[in-house]
Amino acid sequence: MKKYILLIAVAMGLSQTACKEDFIDLSPISSANINSFYQSEKDFETAIVGVYNVFQSVHSTMWTEYNEFRGDTYTHIQYSYAEISNNTFQSNTTATMWNTMYRMITYSNIILDRIDAVEMDEGVKARIKGEAQFFRAYAYFALVRIYGDVPLITKEVSTSEALEIGRTPTKEVYAQITMDLTAAIASLPTSLTSAEQGRLTKYAAEVELSRAYMTMSGYPLKENHWADAKPLLEDVINSGQFIFSPTYEEIFTLENEGGAEIILGAKFKIGGVGESTQYQRQFNPTYGGNPLFENGVYESFESGDIRRDFNIAQEYTTLVGATIEALNNTKFDYGYDRASTESGMDFPVQRYTDVLLMYAEVLAEVDGAVPAKSLEILNQVRTRAGLEELAITDLSQFRVAMQKERRSELMFECVRWFDLVRTEMAVDALKAIGHDANENWLLFPLPQTEIDKMQGVLKQNPGY
Amino acid sequence: MTNKLYLIQKKRFWYRQSWQVFQVIMMMLFGCYMAYGQGAVRGTVISKADGTSLPGVTVLVKGSVEASVTDVEGAYTINVPNENSILVFSYIGFKSQEITVGGKSVIDVNLEVDIKSLEEVVVVGYGTQRKSDVTSAIAKIGGEDLEVRPVARVDQALQGQLAGVQVQQPSGRPGKGAEIKVRGIGSISAGSNPLYVVDGYPIDATTFSNMNLSDIESIEVLKDAASASIYGSRGSNGVVIITTKQGKSGDLKLEVKTYAGIQNVERLIPMMNTSEWLSMLVDGRDRAWAKTGGDPNAPMADRPRNYQYDPIWKTDPGSMPYYNHQEWPFQAAPMTDFQITASGGSEKAKYLVSADYFKQDGIVKNTDYTRYSFRTNVSVDVNDFLNIGLNLTPSYSIGNDRDTEGKGGVLHTILYANPFLPIRTGVWGESPEYTDYAVSWDGGSNVVSRIENLIDKETRGQMLANVFANVKLAKGLSFKTSFGANYISTKRDRFENQIISRTRAPVGYSWNTTSVNWLNENILNYSTTIATKHSINALAGFTTQYQNDQSGYLKGENYANDLVPTLNAAGAITQGYTQESDWSLMSFLGRVNYSFNNKYLLSASLRRDGSSRFGSDNKWGWFPAVSAGWRVSEEEFMKSIAVISDLKLRASRGTTGNNNIPNYGSIGLLGQSSYLFGTDETLTVGMYPSSISNRNLSWETTTSTDIGIDFGLLQNRIYASVDYYNNQTKDMLLNVPVPSTTGYTSELRNLGRVENKGWEFELATKNIVGKFNWSTNVNLSFNKNKVLELGPGNAPIIGGDWWGQVNITQVGNPIGAYYMLVQDGIFNTAQEIADNPSWAGSQPGDVIIKDTNEDGVVNIDDRAIVGQNQPKYYFGVTNRFSYAGFDLSVLIYGLGGNKIFNDIGREFNGPSDSQKNHYKNWVNRWRSPEEPGDGTTPAASELVTGASSQYTTRHLYDGGFWRIKNVSLGYNVPKAVAQKIKSGGIRIYLTGENLLTKDHYDVGYNPEVNARSGNPLAPGGDYGSYPLARTFILGLNLSF
């Protein structure tokens, strides 16, 4: 009998080894999970790359859709492009932008929520925090310009918490944007090693904040933040890291896409590794895209402007060799590889010439007049474009000239629509290309699915 | 043949134990015996009741190790030490008898039947119970109900046998399983499969597929929470308990069973012949030409190409050849089975060993299924307090398919094959007829090629092994511990050669899965009777179970030629992955059964489950149940009512769960992405949270109430049970949309409620008893399924495939109800269209769609709920007759209140011919107001207008049917004759399966079809199913 009691004891003992709580704590084997991540410096380095990836995805084609198709550059007869151009939205067309931006915000929030508890090199920590703050601000700046008031969420939230958070007034969203960017400026590096090229710098944050201040100074907030932008832009200009490119053409080459004219680019490359941009395939008819141009785009260039023929060709050759007479975006032809039908062209998000033009505008608005420096910058840009210098003393004339110059210089670079909105020229511009537009057009509709999911907490924009 | 076992010295304990095991092994291997004897007592043991001899009776010398067993004639011989020795005769079902030798050398014994022990025993979770003590809802099938039908799979044998257990056989593909639902569907996304438990081991439903039916002693289905809640978080869909046969003490019993049969397709689907089809084609193309304003007299060449036709098709369609292609894939297919079972043992050691070979050719050419299954069950009483045992079940199966089922499958594409072109053989485009008419078939591969060339082989090997030890610790107290493992390995290899590959280049695929599951159970059992009236039976247990699943996939291309199909011949492996996941479950369980005076019965059970699948804030769940019974017939006041032989009232209530949620559903997962850093744009890997964590994620919970009555009349010649149940399921697992402001778009949450209510009736009658016997078993079940609550805002869920989302899951209706436009005739004239709301663009000959929302506009918003696929009732009737060695049984199975959606009609039940043959109903199409046809089939038109090509109720069919599922005629050869060939019994039988089906579904092979098996949101679709076979089988059972 004793032997059996022993046997039972052994059996019980065996089962006891399994009788621990951790027996039922299993983690996924074939996919990484949140519980085991965000634990080390390496994890956060990996996590921030995940945010850069979202930033990259915005600048493949989505950013162009929401800017150039909305404004007076492109139109289309099909797909969501047509809906954006004609303001005839299906219920969920704008969901992709909304979801993408909130993914960028969520990933940044998780990093910011969790990083302080982890011991790591303080320099690395500060930089990753700065990057996360930049991207959070970047996403809110995009959201607030596209949708107006949006739910402001600055920490990791559960579903039930998210269901309570409705639209936050634009002003408060901007307060968060300026706060985040100010913090980012303090912790982002001033220079990058060659291995770090493509990452954020203090100057990228300064440019973004300047753009936010300029936007806040215009429609719809119309607060005067011109003076806030001035020192930021001066810091970028005086850093000596950026160079006004001697020629316009050389900016848009593969060699110079990370060059001294570029402050921030969304990076792409070919090679079948999922890092190429769809830009050409969507917007360049030579490679399969087929957008149409709004009236007046080609004509908006002054005669003799070398930028006109650089940006727009009047005909194109299809892949099968037929020549078609139609306007065609040739600016970003570089980087396209016919063999793999991929494109590796980096999309310029912040460019030094843009910074100079912003500075010229800021100086004039701060002074309430046209200072010599502003005019000098304007003429510097015009001279490079092969145009004669202007002599403007009237501020309102300067403003018109400035926006015209920005349009020509930054054609297809996704600044035009938001420039039109903040300077209150958008409705007129839309009317000029035949739309029966009104102020409602200045914001996009919220995705209907989100309104449905929020069960009354989220309200649609007027006009939709 | 006499088989005696002698045991060695009691002192030499361990030696004895191994000697016993050795004997068992020897018996298994050689069926031989060891004997020695001297001065013996002999005699014969017969049954007192009818005088028949009793083989296998254990004869013991009390207080010694001497033992013997009676042979076939009931004879025994035993050595006795002296004349004071006492012989003990014991036999299952009979009262034991003790006789003092007293110097006699011949002792004949009459054993008396023990009524109490003969009473039916029911297997319940972690134990057994006398049927009369059961207070919950348990259905049982055993004995001849299982024996009489030689079917390929165990699940098929359950069809029509049990109330509350719906067995649906959607496919006749060899080796393919049935779907079992116990008391309706209680889940949207966590599955409706019941839990299967084989000899106490809870297993995956797929393990079932390789079991040999004749190894099974009984199958019990635990239907209500009171019986199933002992299985806790896995009991919601019911529990199917399978108990395999064990060896019995006695001589070696050798059984040989074999059968052979032939299968044929039950019916063909009526399609048009060549002239009928050409008439539709001409009609439709002319009509389309007219609709576009074309001149009917213009030359054919003026028309668009798809409106043209060969004039002879109109003038003399009879001159065109006609081929009934549908006959081509089918064949008369043989099936055979051969099995051998050896069983027996001593009073202390019992064994059963079986081997089975099963081979079934499919009724579709080149499909088949072969299975080898083995079983070893051994149990040894080491001494009077320790019993150890082993169950070992290896099996292996091989199945071959040829893309027979589903969209684009052989049985789909063959239907619409052009009836005037011969069936195509060889490579695409070989026959000139095809290029002449430019008839496109199936996007580039042809049916015949796939039947002849495709390799698609699935193999499955599995081994379920379980060892156990049962220790009697004290009187009434025992402890059982077991350790088992279930290993399953599957592999599927597919090779498309140059002829059938869409790219004309060979492609090879290989999938494999490996699953290892282990289980440890420790159960303490106590039973006692206090003051003769209070009977208590209690158990407590602790179990742990773990499973690891691995899968892999490879795709190979760039083969040099078709010679070698395996992936080593592929020039490049172009796709592949491996994956691994696991789950674990830890449980505590307990149950107390109390009975007072056999009259008042009370049972309570409780299980606590902790599962790796549940969220960290919800790791453990309680699953309680109580039930009570009152055996009214045991009361004194009932004894005088002679007609009522048995009457029991019972009621139960309890909670079960469904833990069939994803393995890591509660844990937020990370996705991988990348970005480019550095002047050389180095790819840098990043990660992001891809799914939201839900720390509260848990099982689905079902609370069920069951009220039942069992009664027997006229000494139980009439026995009936009636049950009413109400199952309320809550916390259904749903993938719920969440605000994107969370960073995610959906989340797995426990939301939603559904209820299943129903009635079950079982009736067993012995109509005639005597030389001629006739008995009848009837079961009838009603179930009503209703969704009570869904996700946020109760948003309905539309189900189905992209080509036809015709199901809706909506509050107040059954899960997956049919939801589509309602057709209300055919427009005859333009005036009718002008006068009534109509679908935009309707023309005479187009279908009338009912304005169901009565808003004066007919559009997609007029879709309405038009029925369900879940049957409202189902029944089975078995009649059994026997006379002088002959027996006949007839099983009829049927169901009703359900509908079937003919998905396939999208392709060839529409108004345009699309170069595809159509169902026969197009002969009765609308041609003109004077020739309106059958009133539902619209006009043929290659240019489709109105709603004629929309999914409407035109494609929805009544799914009710009844079937003569099985007729078996058997003959048991008289013993005297059998013994001439030294056989203990010979049975010859003839069986027919699926002999007759009465249904309303004339556009499909099988009214049980379910194209999207396992998806309750879109049930009952048909996109070409493998028909059930009509089978005739001749079988022979021999025992020695």
TrEMBL record, chain A:
<dbReference type="InterPro" id="IPR012944">
    <property type="entry name" value="SusD_RagB_dom"/>
</dbReference>
<keyword id="KW-0998">Cell outer membrane</keyword>
<dbReference type="Pfam" id="PF14322">
    <property type="entry name" value="SusD-like_3"/>
</dbReference>
<dbReference type="GO" id="GO:0009279">
    <property type="term" value="C:cell outer membrane"/>
</dbReference>
<dbReference type="Pfam" id="PF07980">
    <property type="entry name" value="SusD_RagB"/>
</dbReference>
<feature type="domain" description="SusD-like N-terminal">
    <location>
        <begin position="22"/>
        <end position="214"/>
    </location>
</feature>
<comment type="similarity">
    <text>Belongs to the SusD family.</text>
</comment>
<feature type="signal peptide">
    <location>
        <begin position="1"/>
        <end position="20"/>
    </location>
</feature>
<protein>
    <submittedName>
        <fullName>SusD-like starch-binding protein associating with outer membrane</fullName>
    </submittedName>
</protein>
<keyword id="KW-0472">Membrane</keyword>
<feature type="domain" description="RagB/SusD">
    <location>
        <begin position="334"/>
        <end position="464"/>
    </location>
</feature>
<dbReference type="InterPro" id="IPR033985">
    <property type="entry name" value="SusD-like_N"/>
</dbReference>
<keyword id="KW-0732">Signal</keyword>
<dbReference type="InterPro" id="IPR011990">
    <property type="entry name" value="TPR-like_helical_dom_sf"/>
</dbReference>
Automatic annotation (TrEMBL), chain B:
<dbReference type="InterPro" id="IPR039426">
    <property type="entry name" value="TonB-dep_rcpt-like"/>
</dbReference>
<dbReference type="InterPro" id="IPR012910">
    <property type="entry name" value="Plug_dom"/>
</dbReference>
<dbReference type="InterPro" id="IPR036942">
    <property type="entry name" value="Beta-barrel_TonB_sf"/>
</dbReference>
<dbReference type="Pfam" id="PF13715">
    <property type="entry name" value="CarbopepD_reg_2"/>
</dbReference>
<keyword id="KW-1134">Transmembrane beta strand</keyword>
<keyword id="KW-0812">Transmembrane</keyword>
<comment type="similarity">
    <text>Belongs to the TonB-dependent receptor family.</text>
</comment>
<dbReference type="InterPro" id="IPR023997">
    <property type="entry name" value="TonB-dep_OMP_SusC/RagA_CS"/>
</dbReference>
<dbReference type="GO" id="GO:0009279">
    <property type="term" value="C:cell outer membrane"/>
</dbReference>
<keyword id="KW-0813">Transport</keyword>
<dbReference type="Pfam" id="PF07715">
    <property type="entry name" value="Plug"/>
</dbReference>
<keyword id="KW-0998">Cell outer membrane</keyword>
<feature type="transmembrane region" description="Helical">
    <location>
        <begin position="21"/>
        <end position="39"/>
    </location>
</feature>
<protein>
    <submittedName>
        <fullName>TonB-linked SusC/RagA family outer membrane protein</fullName>
    </submittedName>
</protein>
<keyword id="KW-0472">Membrane</keyword>
<feature type="domain" description="TonB-dependent receptor plug">
    <location>
        <begin position="131"/>
        <end position="239"/>
    </location>
</feature>
<dbReference type="InterPro" id="IPR037066">
    <property type="entry name" value="Plug_dom_sf"/>
</dbReference>
<keyword id="KW-1133">Transmembrane helix</keyword>
<dbReference type="InterPro" id="IPR023996">
    <property type="entry name" value="TonB-dep_OMP_SusC/RagA"/>
</dbReference>
<dbReference type="InterPro" id="IPR008969">
    <property type="entry name" value="CarboxyPept-like_regulatory"/>
</dbReference>
